[in-house]
């Protein structure tokens, strides 16, 4: 019995020391920023579709606004990543991006037309595109102390808590008030908290690069072959990874789940995403790059379950979709940090995010077209294009093993 207390005390001290680590504190602080930020814009995204419709937008306009906003946000990551490397103004770019990203949401309450609301929705995505590469570079410095997979996993888990809470808050507001504008006004609170915690983080850790302990000596003049192969492979996974909007459309069309239950499925997927990020992030630190092959296999499996299965199979497919999303968010960001020189890490994240986002947009568009012809075609495309990424990941693994030997 005394031995149990000794073990428990040892575990407690280990985790207490872990939490005292400055790198962990920084990761958690930035995770809290993401938690409040996700509450803001994920809460908004849960109602922007019907809000635009009420303001007079057509279905085509709604689809264009959502798709174009995402595409523009991802394209901007290339330029913001390069800018952050050239200026080293990681905090300034991150803060500007968050201000644009978050303040556009409550302003939607003042939109008098669907065109104004559409512009604000696109501006919100632009803000996210500006901030992501710089923020991830700063996080990568801290993650080098605790393990990139673990660090990014913690951040993603906190991020997804916000992604769950935001839509639930809006649902409660609508239930008691029924007014979309009031819903957007309520989202000003988490937006303000996100910016407040962000500024506190900036004050406490003005130089996150000092948290970097594993300086990787890579050629700063350009990215190596393994990096470019990795970008291509990740782009293939993105192209075959169906957006939840298409999944929800399918569920509603075939009446597999009730309209009220579909948002709950999304919340469940986001919860699985957060847990998956922690688990796979930790596995990445322990097992290395090879774990990405398992992620690719899981990602390739969700489409047959979601689009061809019945109630229980589709539910399992949503779980697989959530697992894959969380694993990608933690492992892929970790891999970029490991494979890129510290001097060009902002550009590395920018290039990766741009290609990943464009691939996802193009793949989603193609799968939407395939869906109108045959669901089977969609499933075949989704599975095959993701499976093609596996031999590329294997070749990257061989390159990395060769480099380690040399």
Structure explained in plain terms:
It is found in: Cell membrane. With 406 residues, the chain is mostly helical. It folds into 2 domains: 191 residues, MFS general substrate transporter like domains (Growth Hormone, Chain: A), CATH 1.20.1250; 187 residues, Growth Hormone, Chain: A, CATH 1.20.1250.20. The protein is built from 17 helices and no strands. Helix 4 packs antiparallel against helix 15, helix 5 runs antiparallel to helix 6 and helix 15 packs antiparallel against helix 16. The longest helix is centred in the N-terminal third of the chain and has 33 residues. The chain is globular and about 60 Å long.
Tell me, rounded to a whole number, the average pLDDT. 86
How far apart are the termini? 50 Å
Number of strands: 0
CATH class of the largest domain: Mainly Alpha
Computed CA radius of gyration, to the nearest angstrom: 21 Å
Structural class: mainly alpha
Main beta-sheet strand count, sense and barrel state: none
Write out the CATH superfamily name of the largest domain: MFS general substrate transporter like domains
Give me the strand/helix succession: HHHHHHHHHHHHHHHHH
Unreliable stretches covering 5 or more consecutive residues: none
User: Helix count, per DSSP?
Assistant: 17
Helix coverage percent of residues? over 70%
């Amino acid at each position: 019995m005394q031995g149990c207390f000794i073990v428990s005390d040892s575990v407690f001290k280990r985790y207490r020391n872990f939490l005292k680590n400055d790198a962990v504190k920084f990761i958690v602080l930035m995770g809290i920023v993401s938690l409040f930020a996700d509450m803001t814009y994920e809460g908004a995204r849960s109602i922007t579709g019907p809000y635009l419709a009420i303001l007079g937008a057509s279905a085509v306009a709604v689809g264009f606004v959502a798709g174009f906003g995402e595409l523009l946000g991802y394209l901007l990551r290339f330029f913001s990543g390069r800018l952050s490397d050239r200026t080293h103004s990681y905090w300034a770019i991150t803060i500007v991006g968050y201000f644009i990203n978050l303040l556009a949401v409550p302003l939607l309450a003042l939109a008098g037309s669907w065109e104004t609301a559409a512009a604000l929705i696109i501006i919100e995505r632009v803000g996210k595109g500006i901030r992501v590469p710089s923020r991830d570079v700063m996080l990568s410095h801290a993650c080098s102390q605790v393990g990139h997979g673990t660090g990014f996993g913690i951040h993603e888990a906190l991020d997804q808590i916000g992604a769950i809470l935001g839509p639930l808050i809006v649902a409660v507001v609508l239930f008691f008030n029924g007014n979309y504008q009031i819903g957007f006004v309520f989202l000003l609170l988490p937006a303000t908290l996100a910016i407040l915690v962000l500024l506190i983080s900036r004050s406490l850790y003005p130089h996150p690069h000092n948290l970097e302990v594993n300086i990787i000596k890579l050629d700063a003049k350009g990215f190596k072959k393994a990096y470019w192969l990795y970008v291509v492979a990740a782009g293939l996974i993105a192209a075959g990874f169906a957006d939840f909007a298409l999944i929800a459309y399918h569920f509603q069309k075939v009446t597999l789940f009730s309209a009220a239950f579909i948002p709950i499925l999304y919340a469940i997927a986001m919860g699985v995403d957060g847990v998956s990020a922690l688990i796979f992030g930790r596995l990445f630190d322990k097992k290395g790059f090879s774990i990405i092959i398992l992620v690719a296999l899981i990602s390739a499996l969700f489409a047959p379950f979601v689009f061809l299965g019945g109630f229980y199979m589709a539910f399992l497919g949503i779980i697989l979709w959530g697992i894959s999303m969380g694993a990608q968010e933690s492992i892929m960001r970790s891999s970029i940090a490991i494979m890129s020189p510290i001097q060009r890490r902002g550009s590395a994240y920018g290039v990766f995010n741009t290609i990943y986002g464009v691939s996802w947009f193009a793949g989603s568009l193609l799968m939407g077209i395939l869906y109108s012809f045959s669901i089977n075609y969609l499933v075949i495309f989704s599975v095959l294009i993701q499976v093609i990424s596996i031999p590329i990941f294997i070749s990257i693994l061989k390159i990395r093993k060769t480099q380690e030997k040399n």
